């Protein structure tokens, strides 16, 4: 019994590689990608994919641009065996795509596997056996030499069987399973023996795949282990050094990136990190991380939603809303300061310039996503988010001080309701607050007459429901309307006035002008807004809206004129 449960565990020892080079390396070209969605991904599902789903996934992987796809563990099930046959016999494999099949290093399974690939143009036969001390001692009860012999004998068997099917180009892949938990010298010894048994040459390379079957240490340790193999493997020029990180510690993506920096040529993984336990490395993330560094990864995720939908339907597992690049929320900002920065970033981002929008590491459009859900408003939001939605969804560009005022209104609403408000909710709130505010004054219409020294106006309104006509004169319609209000004892001043055209149209479907008037009245300062096809109408609406918002009670009840 341990006093502290944590004492059940031991720290992973560092790798003795004092002159490690990988920390200074820069990834300058994408690795060879290998999708194991149909094998490692498939073996980890509640319900493995049926033939239809496998075919759908295979076709999509080809479309994305994978040139190597592990399609099955043919000895595992009739479904897997038949799927390989269907691919080959139905000519479903594009000329530039190589299928891969996995088998344990066991003779009957190897024979069944080789039978499944008969007639293929080219195939990677992938053999594995676990070689770490625990597996040697606990699972196999074998010595190092016996474990090595298991690998070598299997490779020789594949070699002999491949010689009997010359119509098929057989490429050997060997995985020392549990590589990360194995003594490096022993891993090298087994891999070198495999390379020799296959008689690999630069023209006929062997794929040596070093899996983090279980992620056991920080990703820099994996990089050290890979650099050590890269520098010490025999016949390195005849070896394609491959990575297969799992994500037990949540650092598979970092491990893959560091592993490539450490000299690996190839990366195996699954879309969205499907795979045993916490998954294989997520190839979408690794690839798009490269994309954001200005390098095309050679995989096409320009319709991310379609890829996501297909994977969800085939695996019956949903993508987490915060999954890098793909989740529903990854291009969404709720918080005020983020929204403010994004809005400002979009305002200055030029079409052809380098991408420089704060908080968005990639242009959502490059993944086929639109900007609709980038800013969403809840109680954590500020004026920037509200203004962004008003502008992007309704074409209303609010003056800055109106943004401040209206975001206070939205904040009250979100505090009271507790949940997110949609753009449509905000638009309704804006209308209720500024456009439809009709108490005490409700505007109906006006008549304007030019005079020698200005303009005379007559405004028809209801005052607390009682019809009235207000008359006034001024040097323009706004001034005349202010004077008309004085006849009711309403002494208002216009502090600022702006007119803009609006993307949205009125309820009558007309193109709209928008007037924003900042009204000072009875020691209060409030915005009023008017929207109408006629700018003068919009201006008078805005003044009356501002007066109403100041909460003014007219001193004199109106008489009909
Ligand atoms: C890390 C990975 O993802 S490896 C891939 C794992 N994927 C799968 O296992 C999915 C497909 N597998 C299967 O359907 C089955 O395991 C089969 C059909 C291949 C084999 O089934 P079974 O013969 O019943 O064996 P089982 O699955 O119980 O495997 C355990 C046996 O395989 C041996 N074994 C395990 N791995 C290996 C290996 N790489 N090489 C040789 N033998 C192995 C074990 O020692 C054990 O042998 P024992 O029965 O003599 O003690
Ligand atoms: C078969 C091997 C490569 C594997 O899936 C693993 O070790 O995780
Ligand atoms: Mg695996």
Automatic annotation (TrEMBL):
Belongs to the alpha-IPM synthase/homocitrate synthase family. LeuA type 2 subfamily. NCBIfam families: leuA_yeast (TIGR00970), PRK03739.1 (NF002991). Its cofactor is Mg(2+). One of its GO terms (cellular component) is cytoplasm. Residues 31-305 form the Pyruvate carboxyltransferase domain. The keyword Magnesium applies. This is 2-isopropylmalate synthase. CDD domains: DRE_TIM_LeuA. It catalyses: 3-methyl-2-oxobutanoate + acetyl-CoA + H2O = (2S)-2-isopropylmalate + CoA + H(+). One of its GO terms (biological process) is L-leucine biosynthetic process. Catalyzes the condensation of the acetyl group of acetyl-CoA with 3-methyl-2-oxobutanoate (2-ketoisovalerate) to form 3-carboxy-3-hydroxy-4-methylpentanoate (2-isopropylmalate). It is found in: Cytoplasm. Mg(2+) binds at residues 40, 244, 246, 280. Keywords: Amino-acid biosynthesis, Branched-chain amino acid biosynthesis, Cytoplasm, Leucine biosynthesis, Magnesium, Metal-binding, Transferase. Pathway: Amino-acid biosynthesis; L-leucine biosynthesis; L-leucine from 3-methyl-2-oxobutanoate: step 1/4. The lineage of its organism: Bacteria, Pseudomonadati, Pseudomonadota, Betaproteobacteria, Nitrosomonadales. Its EC number is 2.3.3.13. Homodimer. GO terms for molecular function: 2-isopropylmalate synthase activity; acetyl-CoA C-acetyltransferase activity; magnesium ion binding. It comes from the Bacteria. It comes from Methylophilus rhizosphaerae. Gene3D superfamilies: 3.30.160.270, Aldolase class I. Residues 437-561 are annotated as: Regulatory domain.
